[in-house]
Amino acid sequence: MRIFVKIIIFLILIPSKSFGLIEVDITRGNLDPLPIAVSPLSIDENSRQNFEKILKKKNIGEEISKIIEVNLKTSGLFNPLNKDAFLQAPDIANLKPRFEDWNLIKAQALITGKVSYVDDKLRVEFRLWDVLAGKEMMALAFTTVPNNWRRVGHIITDKVYERLTGEKGYFDTRIIYVAEEGPKTQRIKKLAIMDQDGANNKFLTLGNELVLTPRFNPSSQMVTYLSYFRNLPRVYLLDIETGTQEVVGDFPGMTFAPRFSPDGKKIIMSFAKDGNSEIYTMDLENRIVEKITNHPSIDTSPSYSPDGKFISFNSDRSGYQQIYVMKSDGSNVKRISFGKGIYGTPVWSPRGDLIAFTKLHKGKFYIGVMRTDGSGERLLTENFYQEAPSWSPNGRVLIFYRETKTDSKGKGFSAKLWSIDLTGYNERQVPTPTDGSDPSWSSLLSN
Amino acid sequence: MKLSKILKNGFLIVVACLALSACATSKKTTGQMQGDVYTGTDTVEYLASGVPDRVFFATNESVLTTASRETLRKQAAWLRKNSKITIVLEGHADERGTREYNLALGERRANAAKDYLMTYGISSDRISVLSYGKERPVDSGSNPLAWSKNRRSVTVKAN
User: Contact, B104 vs B131, CB < 8 A?
Assistant: First the structure.
């Protein structure tokens, strides 16, 4: 009955949204990505020279379109076509595409645009065209400081993605993670932040002390993480813009596994004392600390539901690590994982309907998802070691880290970031300058 | 160039011989496990003569084995004799678990050792506990023996 209602709503919503134009179905594995032509953004010679001076890029229009292209390709939903086959010049295409030409190379959608230098600023306009229908689907313009040129490429991708899939994008986002170097027995770990595509990598700590598990707050300005500063493992708060740091709360022992509440006002974490780890929250405004769980087992890896009403966590109260859900005041604790193996690191999807997790079964590690009542378990990827999924802000992609098995001499260790679609398709390594682990995806920086 | 290569190879052969002969004599006493608890002495250091610095655990466990209790009684005796020494118990886990759970598990293991030392008269004032989870393995191998060496609580002098 309920499914029936959903289908009806679906039928009503979709046509009104897309006006019968092209659309991309992202709910199943897309084995047939949409062919799209990204025409280089055109640029007049005067603007080109100005931007070359400021940004040291020969043709900023081409650079921005490259970013769009790479984004669309990594999403797995689009197939950006080879530019060599484009027949129409970028500036003319932006005025009025010759749809027959674009049809000829099998493009179903076309992106055109123009970059200009206006009052020391970067002005970018772009258009999205439906090639088959011969219609403009969207036209937008942005003006920003020239240094923001990469973000412009990401924002355009978000707009195109949203227009063609009906869901928000995730390209104008950042990843915070732990950069790793050195031998496995003495890893040096630093907090690092980068754009979702791996660009603009920046180290936020020097590596003097061990740091683990950074997580963004919903506004993406603040990060909470675990630092071994002075050999006292404690949860810290870091303001990325100002660099100021502070310890969260005054606990007589290790605090770890921090995350923000969805409104960003609380931190939820574990506090370990006398061999027992419990879940606590601390209100960042009034500093009030609340104990949420009360059980002699290990309770950790807490994560709020997006409405803030529930908390998922893992506990070994049944003998092994399993996933539980409770109300945010700690009442109504229910175990939800009942499959074979042990389960950890539950993270609630931003859409609220799924919980992603790590599972260990028969010596293999899996990243999977289940409904919030534990039903519908689906394993997305299997490997020697991988864990700690984090959701893209639109709930379509998971980023996690994977470690390699060492050889008989203990050599060959590496840790890398990977992403995979909720569908289980489109698994790919996320580029980082060093090894990386514990990734956390920010929310959309704009809109 | 060539000469150094020859020398290098020669050196390698010598090392290999040494390693082989070492293996032949010491294989019985190193790299042992009982169940999946490490019982060898490969990685063990000594706080004083006859006082091993660490105890080992089974997978996912923080229960002290008979051998671990014996080690801790020796540590307690040594601590009673050296009453000014304070210690840190560093709890560790192997790499086959999630990072956060392992932090909790390391803390639980170190506290198991702490509790036992306290029952032998060592004041909790002299003991602090520090969990490293899976962050500081002693053996970088990805095999059951390496993991057994890494599931440990190490007693470290703090002063």
Answer: yes
